[in-house]
Design brief:
Blueprint: H1 7-14, H2 41-44, H3 51-62, H4 71-77, H5 82-94, E1 98-104, E2 110-116, H6 121-124, H7 130-133, H8 230-241, H9 243-246, H10 254-269, H11 274-282, H12 292-302, H13 311-317, E3 327-329, E4 336-338, H14 346-366
Antiparallel strand pairs: 1-2, 3-4
Length: 367
């Protein structure tokens, strides 16, 4: 009875909408109203940062401006030692979240400044300012309104003088009537200029993994031999039918064997040995192996060896051999020289020719 059970989580779990997952974590998200820090998933789920580095980064990000975040200051706040904190800070520096540099104050005092960026990728690819993303308002369009016809003021009524005699007063003269002024033709209203569409901002990040709705590339067809002879067909069928004896994880049905026979025949046509084909198809399969026939079709297509070179291709590769003249030793001075046959070097041949000339001159003079 002394074991305390937290029933608050159990009650909150009953209020989670939707079906609960059969495995994995279940999140109970309660919105924060105060004392919280926004942390991006690029940091919380960073594949190359250790959990210690992620925790130190979150701790630094939650501290107010101007707080000491050196190794000793963090060791006083955290349970990790100074060595682990120093290693975590080096990881954050390597990935651009943290930078430490020395700055000289006006009084010739050198201090170490620590700069922490919660999103270093935004510094490499800066966001466009909000003013550029707002649509520009169109310039005011002036609309010409037709001028109204001038309105004439009514002529003042004539003032009658008091009658001096009982005689009838003369009738007043009628005011001259002005001719009607023609109205100007109506000016068509100018249509407002269309609002310019702002250019779409360049994406900050290009996803490397295609979305699930992206069209998948078509599969490459199974290789086919130039001519499926009966001998190739029988050899390929025998290899596939006997495959489960060498690799028990590759049991094939009769339909699978008939479907894969052309691919194995293409390998055999390219002078591939049966044991080489068997090793290439069954070596290091995935765990668990769900579809053996599909794996064999994929490997038959992707690992297809090149066609063996023909006689003409080998003849083109053959180069004429360069004849190397061997070394010989001079019979007179024992000097090494290159010559196809043994004899004398160049200097000894010249000396011998000079002696022969002198001998001929001496014989001629004696005669």
């Amino acid at each position: 009875m002394d074991t305390q059970q937290n029933t608050a989580l159990t009650r909150a779990l009953a209020e989670v909408p939707g079906p609960l997952p059969t495995s994995g974590v279940i999140h109970i998200a309660i919105p924060h109203t105060d004392r919280f820090t926004v942390v991006g998933n690029h940091l919380a789920q960073h594949p190359d940062l250790s959990c210690t580095a992620v925790g130190i980064a979150v701790r630094i990000q939650s501290l107010p401006q101007g707080t000491e975040v050196g190794i000793k200051a963090l060791a006083a706040r955290c349970k990790e030692g100074q060595k682990r904190i120093a290693a975590a800070l080096r990881e954050l520096e390597a990935h651009g979240y943290l930078e430490r540099f020395r700055d000289r104050l006006p009084g010739k005092k050198v201090i170490t400044r620590t700069v922490f960026c919660n999103q270093p990728a935004a510094l490499v690819h800066p966001r466009r300012p909000a003013a550029e993303l707002r649509p520009r308002l169109a310039a005011p369009v002036s609309v010409r309104v037709p001028a109204a016809a001038p309105v004439r003021a009514p002529a003042p009524a004539p003032v009658l003088a008091p009658a001096a005699a009982p005689a009838q007063a003369p009738a007043p003269e009628a005011a001259p009537v002005a001719p009607p002024v023609p109205l100007p033709p109506p000016v068509p209203e100018t249509a407002p200029a269309p609002m310019p569409v702002p250019p779409s901002p360049a994406p900050l990040f290009v996803p490397r993994v295609p979305p699930p709705t992206a069209p998948k590339a078509s599969r490459r067809p199974l290789p086919q031999p130039s001519e499926l002879t009966p001998e190739l067909g029988r050899a390929a069928t025998a290899l596939l039918s006997d495959l489960h004896r060498h690799a028990p994880r590759f049991p094939l049905s009769e339909d699978d064997v008939h479907r894969l026979v052309p691919g194995v025949a293409a390998w055999l046509e390219r002078a591939a040995r049966p044991d080489t084909i068997r090793r290439a198809l069954t070596d290091d399969p995935p765990h668990p192996l769900m579809h053996p026939a599909k794996l064999l079709a994929h490997r038959l297509t992707v690992l297809l060896p090149p066609a063996p070179p023909g006689i003409d291709d080998l003849a083109a590769l053959a180069r004429p051999r360069v004849t190397v003249t061997p070394f010989q030793t001079c019979d007179d001075c024992d000097r090494a020289f290159r010559s196809p046959t043994p004899g004398h070097c160049r200097d000894c041949r010249e000396v011998r020719s000079e002696h022969a000339e002198h001998a001929e001159h001496a014989q001629a003079a004696a005669a």
